[in-house]
Amino acid sequence: MRVLAAMSGGVDSAVAAARAHAAGHDVTGVHLALARNPQTFRTGARGCCTLEDSRDARRAADVIGIPFYVWDMAEQFKADVVDDFVAEYAAGRTPNPCLRCNEKIKFEAVLDRAVALGFDAVVTGHHARLGADGLLRRSVDEGKDQSYVLAVLTREQLDRAVFPLGDSTKARVREEAAERGLAVADKPDSHDICFISDGDTQGFLQRQLGDAPGDIVDGRTGERLGSHNGAYGFTVGQRKGLDLRVPAADGRPRYVLSITPVTNTVTVGPREDLEVGVVTASKVIWHGESTSVECDVQLRAHGEVYPATVTIEGDTLTARLTSPARGVAAGQAIVAYQRSADGDIVLGSATITASAPLATARA
């Protein structure tokens, strides 16, 4: 099989490419240049799109013995991931840029170009598995599992995807990299958001959107408790950084309950007011055979899993949780999993649009 290996410059994608090559596939490596400034360079990996990462990917390809190219996708990355990230926060939602990058860049733009060039599939270093039935499953290393951010992929995209690392732990991947002589064996994992080099998301958004002063109010009484310079700087479930001028009568901490862009208002309240029992979502990608199923749902990357009843009606997914979840933010993905003896199977995903309190769910 002729495959294109997406090589970020990290250990996972390097070992994935090496395994594909060792399996007898005709492998070509490609690094995606996503930074608009080609001179971007950071010591130590925060992301996966620096000049340093490109050089690491090229060295790995040389060791493996495969052709290597760099594809400039900076403009598309900015439009589909960075601009989307900013727009979602401006609209009061909390996006997941890694999920959007997988959807729009790695498994849409890259896969489309790969197929046009005659490749059969795209290989990546994601920690997830594709079973013999073609269904996406969690990695055996649940601590590194990335099926949540891959659940947005369509059936057609999964049919042309190869995930060689899903049956290995991260520790084993690093050991194998060292055995193969790959210099990235001990390279730190990427973390945070790759296009925010200093890790200051609020500062990045402020530079993009400017100051937008508004009120912070009590969700139960409507009392004004403080002010902010931009509602985009908050997310549902947030506790730190509220800078409230009026202390709570009971002395307990307060959390962000909701964000209303129309009035530029951030609403806060006690922790129990974060509890929700019904989650509604749109942009549904569904692989399950039934449109009404008892399953588990995950509401954030590496977040807690909740038993639920999920129903699909048109392009709307509704999940009724059997126990309350907290900090459910619009813009995040809800991913449904079916337990099986061969690992949790991804039934589908959707983008969260709204949630209802537990009391509403029981009504």
TrEMBL record:
Its EC number is 2.8.1.13. Residues 280-352 form the tRNA-specific 2-thiouridylase MnmA-like C-terminal domain. Residues 144-146 are annotated as: Interaction with tRNA. The keyword Ribonucleoprotein does not apply. InterPro entries: MnmA-like, MnmA-like_C, MnmA-like_central, MnmA-like_central_sf, Rossmann-like_a/b/a_fold. Keywords: ATP-binding, Cytoplasm, Disulfide bond, Nucleotide-binding, RNA-binding, Transferase, tRNA processing, tRNA-binding. It holds the Pfam family tRNA_Me_trans_M. It is an enzyme of class 2 (transferase). The record marks 126, 332 as: Interaction with tRNA. Its main location: cytoplasm. Residues 203-269 form the tRNA-specific 2-thiouridylase MnmA-like central domain. It comes from the Bacteria. It is found in: Cytoplasm. GO terms for molecular function: tRNA-uridine 2-sulfurtransferase activity. ATP binds at residues 6-13, 32, 125. Gene3D superfamilies: Adenine nucleotide alpha hydrolases-like domains, HUPs, Translation factors. The keyword Lipid biosynthesis does not apply. HAMAP family: tRNA_thiouridyl_MnmA (MF_00144). Catalyzes the 2-thiolation of uridine at the wobble position (U34) of tRNA, leading to the formation of s(2)U34. Belongs to the MnmA/TRMU family. This is tRNA-specific 2-thiouridylase MnmA. It comes from Paractinoplanes aksuensis. The gene is mnmA.
